[in-house]
């Protein structure tokens, strides 16, 4: 009765208005995404310009597009120090932000991130093992062996968590619990290594664990960039499935989506992203957690916008943290892993409170 | 053969068969079938089996001659729309996006303009266009349930399987949702199966009623024939009367539980 009359009353009038109304949402999100991209470019330029030797923005821009125009020492600072740091910050931030967003979606848990699922802790253990044992397999130098060890352990931890969760059955929540349990076990193992290590090795392990962009180099940047460039398109292919999953697991299953398979594929991809990122720069917490939350607050959860937004937000946060790491104590670069939380937490709280008012 | 036919269907969990050797007489196109029965009678298991969630252990399920379990999940999802009993998540998704993602995930054949009009039509049919641009986290449980139903309706499936679609709804919306489903089924010649606890609503809205008890079919047919004191006593364990209301519609009045 009510429906019959409703349906006959205004189908033609309602059809454009609903789509038009939603188009307004889409427009706002595109604008927001563009603003994030602009913020990232500004943060990147500021990051490049910041340091013991102050470079003006003009110097930075002209130095990037026409290196020959600068005096040789400035050229070296720009291309061998500032640019690798700043670009690594962007790539690692984007990788961790994207990985965190995908993990939060498929695990249906806002606390999921590469950090809470043990990826970072496993990387630290892998790196520590290589450092302590002084491993140099097949004559591979340590600056390559350490990230390889970190990556192997980080990837192994992800597979282990996935395997345990599958063995146990369906529960999504159990993945996060396994991850947290794993973090404790891994931290204990790292502590044990630190306990038996001599003073110099101990210092190396502790420093690695802090997370620092100081290890950036162009080949490392290339690896992180390639992994991100390969993973992002695959993520974007699954945006509808992930959006449907956010509307409800049972609902997604009824759409013919194999949610278990989707979860496994997404988790492996996110783990690859996170493991690659932390293997080169060490433990950088919070970015993988706060990037997705910022994107969610600004863009909602339509994954067409949410995933790129989380990558951009993660990159912005790590860029800002990189700037702060150079400015907090003049003449000293604080490991950026320490700063991410110091910069990220107030930013995050500001967003949360800002949204409460709106 | 047209319509939906179930023959010898056995389904359940790994160690426990909830329904065994279940037969359902052919359900012709354009029919709304009400599935009633006590808790744990196997209503949800039956719907999930037909929807293809969880493998059936034996038997055959055919829709218009097509064997449903043999289809790929994507092909089956295009034919069969299933509304789970669980309400959609109160996520920050806008209701429109929840329905849009359902439409895009299943109906890849639709152009953006066709998808837009299908979505608008689904919201319109259920009378919930006003909710379309609100976040799911701001909606009540009943409103989210209707968005869930819109996710099913937008796909325009040949077979709608709705597991208690009115469990979170108030009186007015119970009626209008069930009638919206019935109208949609009649208009498109699809088949609707609706698991429902409110027997009086089932009698009013459904063309046929099937009564389940302990994993088997107790009775099936037109509501007037099937819903009798004897069937109610056997399936639900209650002493009940079926009387005609002032407009001549049968009404079930439950007097007491049988021990």
UniProtKB/TrEMBL annotation, chain A:
Database matches in Pfam families: FecCD (PF01032)
Topology with respect to the bilayer: Multi-pass membrane protein
Residues that span the membrane, as ranges: 30-49, 83-103, 115-138, 144-164, 176-197, 217-237, 270-293, 305-325, 332-353
Membrane found in the keyword field: yes
Compartments where located: Cell membrane
InterPro entries found in the cross-reference section: ABC_BtuC-like, ABC_transptr_permease_BtuC
Primary location class: membrane
UniProt keyword annotations, A-Z: Cell membrane, Membrane, Transmembrane, Transmembrane helix, Transport
Transmembrane helix is among the record's keywords: yes
Domain of life: Bacteria
Family: Belongs to the binding-protein-dependent transport system permease family. FecCD subfamily.
Name of the molecule in the record: Iron ABC transporter permease
Organism annotation: Teichococcus aerophilus
UniProtKB/TrEMBL annotation, chain B:
Domain of life of the native organism: Bacteria
An example Gene Ontology molecular-function term: ATP binding
InterPro entries associated with the record: AAA+_ATPase, ABC_transporter-like_ATP-bd, ABC_transporter-like_CS, P-loop_NTPase
Gene3D superfamilies per UniProt: P-loop containing nucleotide triphosphate hydrolases
Keywords: ATP-binding, Nucleotide-binding
Pfam families linked: ABC_tran (PF00005)
ABC transporter domain: residues covered: 4-239
SUPFAM superfamilies, alphabetized: P-loop containing nucleoside triphosphate hydrolases
Keyword Lipid metabolism attributed: no
PANTHER family: ABC TRANSPORTER ATP-BINDING PROTEIN (PTHR42794:SF2), HEMIN IMPORT ATP-BINDING PROTEIN HMUV (PTHR42794)
Name used for this protein in its record: ABC transporter ATP-binding protein
Organism: Teichococcus aerophilus
């Amino acid at each position: 009765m009510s429906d019959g009359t409703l349906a006959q009353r205004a189908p033609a009038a309602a059809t454009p208005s609903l789509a038009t109304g939603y188009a307004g949402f889409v427009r706002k999100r595109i604008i927001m995404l563009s603003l994030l991209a602009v913020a990232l470019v500004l943060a990147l330029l500021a990051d490049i310009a910041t340091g013991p030797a102050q470079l003006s923005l003009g110097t930075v821009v002209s130095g990037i597009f026409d290196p020959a125009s600068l005096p040789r020492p400035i050229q070296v600072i720009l291309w061998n120090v500032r640019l690798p740091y700043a670009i690594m910050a962007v790539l690692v931030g984007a990788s961790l932000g994207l990985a965190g967003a995908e993990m939060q979606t498929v695990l249906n848990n806002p606390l999921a991130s590469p950090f809470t699922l043990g990826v970072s802790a496993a990387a630290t253990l892998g790196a520590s093992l290589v450092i302590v044992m002084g491993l140099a397999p097949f004559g591979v130098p340590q600056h390559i062996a350490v990230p390889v060890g970190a990556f192997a352990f980080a990837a192994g931890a992800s597979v282990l968590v996935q395997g345990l969760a599958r063995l146990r059955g369906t529960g999504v929540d159990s993945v996060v619990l396994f991850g947290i349990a794993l973090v404790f076990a891994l931290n204990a193992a790292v502590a044990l290594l630190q306990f038996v290590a001599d003073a110099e090795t101990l210092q190396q392990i502790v420093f690695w664990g802090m997370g620092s962009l100081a290890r950036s180099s162009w080949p490392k940047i290339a690896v992180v960039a390639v992994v991100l460039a390969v993973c992002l398109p695959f993520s974007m292919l699954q945006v509808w499935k992930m959006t449907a999953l956010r509307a409800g697991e049972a609902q997604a299953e009824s759409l013919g989506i194999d949610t278990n398979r989707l979860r496994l594929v997404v988790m492996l991809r996110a783990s690859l992203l996170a493991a690659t990122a932390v293997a080169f720069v060490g433990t950088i917490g919070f970015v993988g957690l706060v990037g997705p939350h910022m994107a969610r607050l600004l863009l909602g959860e339509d994954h067409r916008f949410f995933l790129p937004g989380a990558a951009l937000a993660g990159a912005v946060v790590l860029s800002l943290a990189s700037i702060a790491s150079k400015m907090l104590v003049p003449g000293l670069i604080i490991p950026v892993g320490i700063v991410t939380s110091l910069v990220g937490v107030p930013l995050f709280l500001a967003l949360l409170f800002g949204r409460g008012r709106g | 053969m047209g319509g939906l036919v179930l023959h010898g269907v056995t389904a359940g969990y790994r160690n426990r068969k909830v329904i065994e050797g279940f037969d359902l007489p052919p359900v012709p196109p354009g029919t709304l079938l009400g599935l009633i029965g006590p808790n744990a009678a196997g209503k949800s298991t039956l719907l999930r089996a037909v929807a293809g969630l969880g493998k059936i252990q034996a038997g055959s399920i055919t829709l218009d001659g097509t064997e449903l379990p043999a289809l790929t999940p994507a092909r089956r999802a295009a034919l069969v729309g299933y509304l789970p009993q669980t309400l959609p998540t109160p996520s920050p998704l806008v209701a429109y996006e929840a329905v849009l993602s359902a439409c895009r995930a299943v109906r890849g054949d639709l152009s953006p303009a066709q998808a837009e009009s299908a979505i608008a039509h689904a919201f319109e049919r259920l009378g919930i266009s006003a909710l379309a641009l609100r976040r799911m986290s701001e909606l009540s449980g009943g409103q989210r349930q209707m968005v869930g139903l819109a996710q099913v309706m937008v796909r325009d499936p040949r077979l709608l399987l709705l597991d208690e679609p009115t469990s979170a709804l108030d009186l007015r919306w119970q009626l209008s949702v069930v009638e919206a489903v019935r109208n949609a089924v009649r208009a498109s010649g699809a088949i609707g199966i609706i698991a429902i606890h409110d027997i009086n609503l089932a009698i009013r809205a459904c063309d046929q009623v099937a009564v389940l008890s302990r994993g088997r079919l107790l009775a099936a047919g037109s509501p007037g024939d099937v819903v009798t004191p004897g069937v109610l006593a056997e399936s639900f364990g209650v002493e009940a009367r079926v009387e005609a209301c002032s407009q001549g519609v049968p009404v079930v009045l439950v007097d007491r539980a049988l021990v």
